[in-house]
Amino acid sequence: MIQHTQGSRLEVRGVNKFFGEFCALKDINLTIEPGELVCFLGPSGCGKTTLLRIIAGLEQQSCGTLRQGDVDISQKPPRDRDFGIVFQSYALFPNMTVIDNVAYGLRSIGMPKARVRDRVDELLAVVGLEDHARKYPAQLSGGQQQRVALARALAPSPGLLLLDEPLSALDAKVRHHLRSEIRSLQKQLGVTTIMVTHDQEEALAMADRVVVMNNGVIEQVGTPLDIYQQPASAFVASFIGAMNFFDSAPVNGQRVRLGNRELDLVRPLPATPDGIRLAIRPEDVHLLPQGDGEWEGQVQAMDYLGAFIRTHVRLHGVELDLVVDVDPRSARQLELRVGGAVCLNLPSDALHCFAA
Amino acid sequence: MKHLKKALALTALMAAVNANAQTELTVYTAVEAEDLKKYAARFNEDHPDIKINWVRDSTGVITARLLAEKENPQADVVWGLAGTSLLLLKNEGMLTPYAPEGLEKLSPKFRDRDETPSWVGMDAWMAAVCVNTIEAEKNNLPMPTSWQDLTKPVYRGHVVMPNPNSSGTGFLDVSAWLQLMGEDKGWEFMDGLHQNISRYTHSGSKPCKMAASGETSIGVSFAFRGARLKEKGAPLELVFPEEGLGWEVEATAIVDGTDKLEAAQTLVDWSITRQAMEMYNEGYAIVAMPGVAQPVEHFPANAEALIIDNDFGWAASNREAILTEWARRYDGKSEAK
Amino acid sequence: MPSFHPGKTFMMDSSVPLTSPSRRAGALSELRQRVTGRWLFALLLVLGCAVLSLLVLAPLYTLLSKSVENKAGDFVGLDNFAHYLSSGGIESAFFNSLWVAGLSTLVVVGLAFMAAWALTRTRLPMTGWIRGVLVLPILAPSLLPAISLVYLFGNQGVLKSWLFGAEIYGPIGIIMGSCFWTFPHALMILLTAMDNADGRHYEAATALKASPWRTFWTVTVPGARYGLVSAAFVVFTLVITDFGVPKVIGGQFDVLATDIYKQVIGQQKFEMGAVVSVLLLLPAMLAFLADRYVQRKQSASFTARSVPYRPRRDHRRDVIGAVMLAPTILFILAIIGMAVYASFVTFWPYNLELSLNNYQFGRMDGGGWGAYTNSLQMALGTMVIGTLLVFFNAWLMERTPQPRLLTGVFQFLSLLPLAVPGLVLGLSYIFFFNHPDNPINGIYGTLFILILCTVSHFYAVSHLTAVTALKQLDQEFEAVGESLKASRWRVLFTVTLPLCLPAILDVALYLFVNAMTTVSAVVFLYGHDSQLASVAVLNMDEAGDIAPAAAMAILITTTCAAAKLIQGGLRFWVDRSTRAWRQGTE
């Protein structure tokens, strides 16, 4: 229903950024396909916002190149690049109505008045703000302001949409709603989108691919499923979702030692001279009736989190603490209670192994 | 067409005549603002072709300004500035010596001693003590008649005088006392006076103004200001201490480098005419030309006899040392009341 | 560099040795980029620096360089300093200056903060009028409080007993006079800092069950922190460099500024005046550095997402506000009222008959109505030229990409005039602009040089006001504009200027009223046809015509008040037409 130029492909090659001695970004290589929604995810200070600003041209990379479509944009000022941006603060022009905010970019490029009006109407309809067209930003709720910012960024049909923590200032309910709205709008328009976030749930829910960053380097790039199921590093594993970690030592190619036992692995061991860390997600641990499992332990605490119960278990013999997510029905069947005994298995296909 | 040409020619001619007629002189002065219009008007009665553009400020400011403008002087003439200031300008080579017509009629005290003087005097500006009669009565103060009187304990905290480091009037007093009494006695007198001084001001007219408004009972200042304030209704009595009065010559000079030398000379010539002297006499009891002065209201009739034989050369060459000594004696102490 | 995201304090430091190959490449691309994209703004700011150098630095150099020369102009190293320091009295003058300026700063910033709080955080009625009264001191020539203080607290003063036998002539008078005239400066800075508060912070505090007292200390004070430091810096420097008040009412209480007066006006020793000026720059520099340090930590507090704070109805708090305002308002009204009375009195204190005679300036000397018209022209010129220059430069500095070093240099040049006593600036202007080798020495003695001098003299506070306003705008406006293909110029005209209109009006008024009332610098620069009303006030007072001087001072004050009313009207109009987007109501 709303026409949009094809989203463009973005290539980042060998980008570094130094602030004095401090290395904010180190050798970033990344390709973003047309129409993709990519999330930059990482803790604060990991360089994700700096990378976004370099892509926008608001910050200058110390070295490296950027290509958008067939064009080398490495040295272009922001105005000569083709993107729309939504900031965490939205940066709506408070002295302009919703209409004027959305029309701002269209007027910049000298679009005829009538077409500006049509385009603004069109966009306001898309973001559902037709009724608020003549209001000022201060008269809108946070979610509405966010939509205005989105409409303003999209109005000139940019090939690339950059979102800098666009949802972080909103309350949870609005955030969930807008999440799916932005996602469907983005799919509908086919605009290549980069979103910076520190919220892993947001990233997993919205992105085609997630770029996990830490300390100025890319730790892993992959689909949300990849990232979750096949974390490339201990950092990714711990940053995305919950994960139990144990110190361990390799026995041979496919076996590791945990406490006084040896475990078989499905995944290959990392080649490292040092110790390794074994990891398993809480929901991958199998709790079993007493006497059935390979491991025995005692329930230390139980957190009821609605859909599941986060159970803290101390394993006998190895004195390791472990978190296990179990659905309430299973918990009832297993008669789980704090202080009670429990048996469990650590399925070998669910075990991850990282260099220590 | 012909008419138009004629008219144009006529206009051009008139403009040319006007340009000739109106030479504009920039004149720096410290003369009281209220007298400037009168001075210019009287001068223009004789010389309507020269227009005076006054730049007036207090003696200190005008002197500082003239010195600061040394590289590129703006003034053509200085008419009405203290002799001490003109001496400074002369030493900086900023004045053009000129012997105006009628120079010989001036009293030798009232001209630069050089054969071709760098400045010529107008009138004398003399010290006086302003006493507020109402406050004096309230505080039971007897009317002082001499400088020594002012050191009497009865006047403690009732006397205000200008700081010689800030004010020419203040320096004039100090230099007169030192000349009158000799250095040792002079400083001894000032030590005594200091005991009675409630404060030193930065401006020479301020002590008299303070006396006029009852802020102090006695202000050591100068006669002209006291007389004017009295005219305006201040309950003042002007006291001219019997030992003698410090004074300063007000004078005229041509600023070196003026491109209107002829007009400047005309002005200086006029400034020492009898007519000019009579004009000065309206506000000052002593003028540079002997025999002209008539008694002036609020001034003593024997003004001429009261003023000391001021050695300006001595005062100028010892100024720095006197001021340093003064500051050493009274500036530091003035904090500890 | 506004393009760094907030929270990051590190920056590109060109002095760091570039060792690794990647960094060398980085420096190269940085250079290329600067040449292509940012050079224009940097160049414009360099131009701004050049203009300020011409208006402030170069003239100052011509005077201050005399501090290391003897009378003949030969270089003598620090001899003059040694001589000055050994002459004694310096310790007391220096110490006096410090404690008087320090105490005045404490009092003024305290009172101004209380007033700003009452005006922005309570719902007192008639705040428009209250604001009007509170800025009255800035509308008055400096001699006006001096006359009033003497009439109030002098030996014949109606309130003399209030001083318990202490004298108004001395530190008490200096502090009272200084507080009077610097108060609006502090208030102006604090109001700008506190006017746009984010209501969310207050809601958060309420939600966290913070008491009003705790909210005050955890939200209000931190929010005004930058304003408080700036105000303290400005007041301290204004007081320490002012010689007007100490000269007129300080008696023989020695401060550095009057020492300059003594050296330059009393004894025509420019080189010693320069020595004291240099010494006077030291405390001002310290204050400047402290200000810079705090300012580095300032970031935008008011964004498009912020909800403008509107105080809720609370009678107790309103009463506290009124109590905080009352002493200041009474003091200001007493001073102004006394001056008005003085302008009608025939001869204080012995003939208290009232008459209008003192207002017949046509019959009076010292310039009369001509001087008044000159003052008007000069003030209007200062307002127009100054506002344009100040705001444009502040915008370049705050809202365009600039090398860090350049903004530092510019900030320094902008604030420098604050540390320079007017007397020093005026003399400097003679030395610099009247020099035969100066190609523009033709402007000397004209109204134009008075305008330039006045713009420079009052540059710092105008600059601070403009910068404070610009800082409060969302840092991303320009970035959004760029992404929408709008040049910074378009963002300037469509967003920044409209948002800063109130601050621009404030700056314009500030320059106008100061130009109307200023004396210390222009006294050296006016020509025979450019005498000023403010100088006429001084001259009339000097001649003992206190009542006409008071009358002229009241005329100037009235003119400034009229300007203030016009400005207030404009602000009201701006407020009304922008209420929807400022307050979020229709």
TrEMBL record, chain B:
UniProt keyword Cytoplasm, yes or no: no
Claim: Ligase is one of the keywords in the record: no
Sorted UniProt keywords: Signal
Signal peptide span: 1-21
SUPFAM superfamilies hit by this protein: Periplasmic binding protein-like II
GO biological process, one term: thiamine transport
Superkingdom to which the source organism belongs: Bacteria
InterPro entries xrefs: ABC_2-AEP-bd, Ferric-bd
Cellular compartments per GO CC: outer membrane-bounded periplasmic space
Molecular function per GO: thiamine binding; thiamine pyrophosphate binding
Pfam families linked: SBP_bac_6 (PF13343)
NCBIfam families, A to Z: phnS2
Protein name: Putative ABC-type Fe3+ transport system, periplasmic component
